[in-house]
Amino acid sequence: MVKRATIHAYWLMFIATVITVGVVTSSQLIADRIGLLLDRQASELLAGDMVLVSSNEFSDDYREQARRHSLRVSQSASLRSAIFIGDDPQLVELKAVDGAYPLRGKLETAREITASRTSTTDIPARGEVWVDSKLASLIDTPLQLGEKSFAASQLLTFEPDRGGAIFNLAPRVLMNLDDLAATGLVVPGSLVRHRLMFAGEAADVLRFKIWLITNLQPGEELQDLENARPEMRRGLERTRKFFALAIVLTLVIAMAAIAITARYTATREAPKVAMLRAFGVSQLSLLKYYLRQLGALWITATIVGVGIGWLMQFPLQWALDDWFGRTLPQISSFRPYLNAALVGLLALAGFSLPYLVNATATPPMQVLRTALNRRSWLRGLLISGSAVIAVFIVLMILMQSSILAVATLALVLACALVLPLILGWMVRALLLSSRRRFWLRQYLLSRLRATSRGAIYVMSGFSLVLIAILLIAVVKDELIGEWEAQLPENIPNYFLINIGSDDVREIDAFLRQREIEISTPYALVRARMVQINSVDVDKIDFADPRAAHAVTHTFNMTHAAELPDQNHVVAGTWLSDSDDLAQFSIEQGLAQKLDIELGDQLTMSVGSQRLQARVTSIRSVLWENFKPNFYLIANPELIESFPQTWLLSALIEDANKADLKRLLQRYPSLTLLDVSELMARVRAIVDKASVALHFFFLFALVSAGIVLLAAIQTGKHEREVESSLLRALSANAGQLYRVHVLEYTLMGCLIGFFAAAFASLAGWVVSEYFFDMEFQLSVDAWLYSLASACLVLTLAGTLVSRRVYNVSPMKILRS
Amino acid sequence: MDTPEGKLDILDDISLDVKYQEAVVIKGASGSGKTTLLGLMAGLDRASRGDVILFGHNLTQRNEEQRASIRAGEVGFVFQSFHLVQGATAMQNVMLPLELGGVSDAYTLAQKSLQEVGLQSKSDTLVEYLSGGEQQRVAIARAYATHPRVLFADEPTGNLDAASGRQIADLMFHLRDRSGTTLVLVTHEAELLARGDRQVMIESGKLLTN
């Protein structure tokens, strides 16, 4: 009997803890699995999880260590070579790969340009090569590479790791690594780019990366998702940040449930405590008793919550399988479960213990008469302080970025502290407006104000829940909107490179005549940075370790009179036609890496010549937009006399493919780069991330629904007693129905209003400072907030009222 | 009554007439069925068999909605635990049944009623800040505000100290004498028992003395 009563008293808190543990378990599992999937997808663009690049051969030690770390290893070597098509020489990018290539992703091949493509993880057999589509004429003909003749057996239509410096690519020829030596092309001094690729479990890759960083030799560069493929990096980082934000906000929702229910439980426990204290039980004994109760509750809730959380990952798995036809990778870590248990404990202790400590201080006099157990400042501080500490520790456990944790905490705190005050003031102000009529408006407001019902706290908690939901919705929509803006449907799908200066006008005219959408042609001048402010770059001690690679990099400089599309000047002024025509505009990231500021003088070498100019502007560049983007842009007058080729991008529909053939025949030096495959893959990642974002939103929404139910449950008993009283005072069914439904509608309006206001403020902070996005006040968010809060609460009120207004008036006599 | 252990008969073979303006006091041990009897007489509950006639209406044959309309304006209640609306003032609590019954000048009537119980100075005080005795006086003001023909009171002094209990008993009988309201009281208090016109003893659901 005692057991049953205890379970009854604690069941709401138990449910809230189960939600918290379940939310953490499932969201961590889901986030980890989606993160792994995104990594894998992105890894396919590297053909591995991590790549080591060097112009020298790698020590066998790397392979040995990688295998010890349970990683798979693949090796490739790339070099430029010339082949002959008839009597014409053609520069090709030769790539020799071993049997393990590609470690991630697949190659695509076809027998001819128009034939269907086949995905494969095979590589050319010995004696065979696969060639770029531009070399289609070579299929089934012998191809001489150095000293050895090969058969061109397939067209290579896609290779996962072809990104990077895409404008430098000559047509690809792929061969078996075992054949490379026989070609005799690799001799001392050859410009060979060696790549050693690694793939495996994330933890193994990370361990190996740590080892590798400490053992890297000069000239060796490590690429992984963090420093390769700039067009992917920002998207992935933002997706991860969103996951983190969504998890934290969902957790805030769950913790709001614990806070609401803990307060309720403590209130209900007060008479029992008063009785026990009247019997002489000490406060310490009572505290021990409650600690045991909480301990038992935590253990049970953790077991149930972890089980539910584990089960909840399957709907997402099912959704994503259905959507993309592939399985989410499994993770074998216990971390999500342990985190969930710990978070459950902290949340439970942080929110409920202070209330129970407060409850143990219930005066024994309460046995005799209802006395208000007013909280002292010290107890109030204990409750607020421990809740703050609990939230902060939870956030620190779950989030890598402590700044985001602190910011979220600030938001939660601001809401938790300010909302009850504002709501309380508002209700009081409304109550003062009319004193000569009580029913119905004043009656509703007095119900909200009544401290014993804790309506203001429930409303504040639910406002917090709605704020979290709105924030997730706003950030999700902004992220997806920005992705869609970066990858619109009519994005160019071809780059035309190696255009001679004499041909650029004609090619431009040729494409325009056929109504093919093209970009502005950009000149490419290949240059190296030799000095910054007249100091040789190899003598500068850069703070950023990536700077060494940047300064040995050959840049494609261009000149432009106008700022390229989706570039923004973040410092200085765009290149002007002033007297000093020696001006550079530098990309923001490169400027940071090399510690270059406005006014710095850069010396570049172009072939045997040198040129100098001052940095007059720093630009932000949207690398992921698949448009020509440049690190350095100069005034036309500064570099137009240097040797240069031209580049333009074009959107070429299938109907115009024949025109492309004619163009290639007329300008054989022209290189055509098809990026549609790469774009499709990036688009697939974005789509996948969008689904995940929507799922997290849905997940938060379901959690919020459960919190709402829990919050409504906390007031059920009081509502029944009130209904019973009104019934005894002869209220009819219509009056009872109206009072319950309108109470929820009123709560919904207040909650919707404050949630929209706080969410707008928080959305601005999060967008500006964490996602680097321009925030726009969303009228929709206000409308949704008001409409959804009113609608959902009214609906919930209607459902609850169905039971409550049928309550017998006898209840008032027996309560 | 249906209970987890099966059907339970709380009251058995009871016959009780209460005359107009009579003050009947019901006494009995805990669990004897006093409160159930009071609830049935007031139309708060419906007897599973037998008849309960209030002002000529057989309450056993009426549903809750019909019983509520019979109660409206005719029946007043005073409860042991006061059952005032928290978060509302004394005045608002007294206005509530008047407004529920559609009385247009509820404020003036409530003011008068509060004056009668001596609480006019606390009319704008939130009820949770009133003492137990004061809260019960508000409850009495609320009960008499609608000028009911019958007032049912369940242990009205049960939550009060002796002095406050005496004041409340005085007040209830004073108002009853003034308004001529029929009074049905459930109590253990000797003082209240002595002041009733008639005492009814109930034990294990049966009427022992009438």
Characteristic terms for this protein:
heterodimer; A: 815 residues; alpha+beta; 3 domains; 11-stranded mixed β-sheet; 6-stranded mixed β-barrel; 21 helices; 23 strands; 18% strand; B: 210 residues; alpha/beta; Rossmann fold; 6-stranded mixed β-sheet; two-stranded antiparallel ribbon; 7 helices; 10 strands
Can you tell me about this structure?
The complex is a heterodimer of chains A (815) and B (210). Chain A is α+β, with helices and mostly antiparallel strands and 815 residues long. Chain A has three domains: 2-39 and 233-485 and 682-814, no CATH class; 48-228, no CATH class; 494-674, no CATH class. In chain A, 54% of the residues lie in helices and 18% in strands. In chain A, the strands form two sheets. In chain A, strands 1, 2, 3, 4, 5, 6, 7, 8, 9, 10 and 11 form an eleven-stranded mixed sheet that branches. Chain A has a six-stranded mixed beta barrel with strand order 14-16-21-18-20-19. In chain A, strand 14 and strand 15 form a beta hairpin. The radius of gyration of chain A is 34 Å and the shape is elongated. In chain A, 44% of the residues are buried. Chain B contains seven helices and ten strands. Chain B has a domain at 8-86 and 147-209: P-loop containing nucleotide triphosphate hydrolases (Rossmann fold, 3-Layer(aba) Sandwich). In chain B, the strands form three sheets. Chain B has a six-stranded mixed sheet. Chain B has a two-stranded antiparallel sheet with strand order 1-2. The model of chain B has no long low-confidence stretch (mean pLDDT 87). Chain B is globular. In chain B, a hairpin with a 2-residue loop joins strand 9 and strand 10. The interface between A and B is large, with 38 and 39 residues.
